[in-house]
Write a structure and sequence with these properties.
The chain is α/β, with parallel strands linked by helices. The chain is built from 14 helices and 11 strands. It folds into 2 domains: 51-405, Metal-dependent hydrolases (TIM Barrel, Alpha-Beta Barrel); 412-451, no CATH class.
């Protein structure tokens, strides 16, 4: 939370104070860890807003649909070195109180991602991903304030009822191996966003850490087609440049860079070149600004803070238009810098080194999911952005893209589908007593098919 004390948006009911997995007995049903706090781990950000700016920022955060394009809204161990053992339990603990105070409507929740080593020492195993996805939703099912997002109607419900929704995603499609139908399985289990590759190459294409960029494979092209048909949003954040461009050429739906930045602002392979940024925008997609420590730095602000991140935001908005930018802060509850140290090999941290910078213990202003959007809104207000622009980048742009990506029957189509089911049921029922006659009597669809 910023020092100016902008309340974090909508006044969500925190219900009965449910804590993750409290339907079980800690220490008996699962191993217990001391977890990082959801509030006050680092000093509050000093935004320096005037009273008028605070009031306007408060109003915008309260009224807008706010969508984080990428975060990990879970509590990590207070002693981050315990994370490998914590993850082996298969249970990352959602930060319910922190989410309720965040002002967000929807969070693209990418779960354990590259640290999902539940049964082995390498991430992206199919069984581990399914365990992670299932455990998180089992926990969600035992509380009433945070909902699961699978459709546009779910987003509308979360916004209308002033609730927070978790939209589950993966940063890579590596777990599907060479089995295309696993995409359908993941979709059926609630996944609604998926990356192509995570740094290392896989059966679909090259990741950003590969010394040779092979681009999208033939299997990858088939996978993109299946993702489009399913309504799985595609993320290119960790894909190589050529793979990203190939996906943009092949897709017939908008795609996302859920958490990235501009290479022209900070020259590392983790940031994206102008041609990739433009290609994503040309699909109708959206670029989310990342704030993971020591990623979205800038020459003007080599010490990573919200100001560094906003240098990327302004550059991307100028390059592709403000209608194609948003925020995917990539934050969590705990010591993110230490997490990168512990999982440096699995997360390919060394492969994305660039210019020298001033190390930080945390990103001031964008340290965790609770404070992010209050501080983003305050920054946008204080830098002269209009209400319509702010609403667009807080969530409106993402919502528009999802409407084009996700499967959604229009009212007329839903009615036609219902009519078709009613007609088929009528045929079956009529056939029992009139086996040699047409349904409805006299032929045709009658009133059922004519609405």
């Amino acid at each position: 939370m910023m020092a100016d004390e902008i309340p974090a948006g909508r006044d969500l009911n925190s219900g009965d104070g449910y804590a993750a997995y409290s339907y079980l007995i800690a220490g008996e049903d699962f191993r217990q860890f001391e977890l990082a706090p959801e509030f006050g781990r680092v000093p509050a950000y000093a935004a320096g807003l005037s009273p008028e700016q605070q009031q306007r920022a408060r109003r915008l955060l309260t009224d807008a649909m706010v969508i984080s394009l990428h975060d990990h809204p879970v509590r990590f161990p207070l002693r981050m070195e315990e994370t490998p053992e914590y993850n082996r339990t298969g249970r990352q603990h959602a930060a319910y109180a922190g989410l309720a105070a965040s002002g967000m409507t929807v969070v693209f929740d990418n779960m354990m991602d590259g640290t999902a080593c539940v049964t082995g020492n390498a991430p992206w195993r199919w069984d581990d991903i399914i365990t992670d996805l299932g455990m998180r939703q089992a926990d969600l099912a035992h509380q009433r304030d945070i909902m699961t997002i699978r459709t546009i109607a779910d987003i509308d419900e979360a916004y209308r009822d002033r609730r927070v929704g978790l939209l589950f995603g993966l940063e890579a499609a590596t777990p599907i191996e060479n089995e295309l139908d696993r995409l359908d399985v993941l979709y059926g289990l609630g996944l609604r966003q998926i990356g192509i590759a995570y740094s290392d190459a896989n059966a679909l294409g090259s990741g950003l850490a590969e010394p040779y960029d092979g681009g999208l494979t033939a299997f990858g092209r088939r996978a993109v087609t299946r993702m489009n048909r399913l309504g799985l949003a595609i993320d290119l954040s960790h894909s190589s440049d050529r793979t990203a461009l190939d996906v943009c050429r092949h897709t017939d739906k908008p795609v996302f860079l859920t958490h990235a930045g501009a290479r022209a602002v900070w020259n590392t392979s983790r940031m994206k070149p102008d041609d990739v940024l433009r290609a994503v925008a040309e699909t109708g997609g959206v670029i989310g600004m990342s704030a993971a420590p020591h990623t979205t730095l800038s020459a003007a602000h080599p010490r990573h803070t919200i100001e560094s991140v906003m240098d990327h935001f302004r550059y991307c908005a100028d390059l592709v238009g403000i209608e194609h930018v948003a925020f995917g802060p990539d934050t969590l509850y705990g010591d993110h810098v230490m997490l990168h140290t512990i999982f440096a090999r699995l997360l390919s941290i060394g492969a994305t080194r660039g210019p020298s910078f001033d190390p930080v213990r945390y990103v001031d202003g964008l340290e965790n999911p609770t404070e992010n959007f209050a501080n983003i809104t305050g920054w946008l207000v204080s830098h002269g952005f209009g209400d319509q622009e702010i609403r667009a980048v807080l969530g409106g742009n993402i919502y528009r893209a999802l409407q084009a990506i996700w499967v959604s029957l229009r009212p007329q189509a839903r009615r036609a589908a219902v009519d078709e089911r009613q007609h088929e049921r009528g045929q079956r029922e009529y056939a029992h007593g009139h086996r040699d006659q047409e349904y409805p009597p006299g032929g045709g669809r009658g009133l059922i098919g004519s609405r």
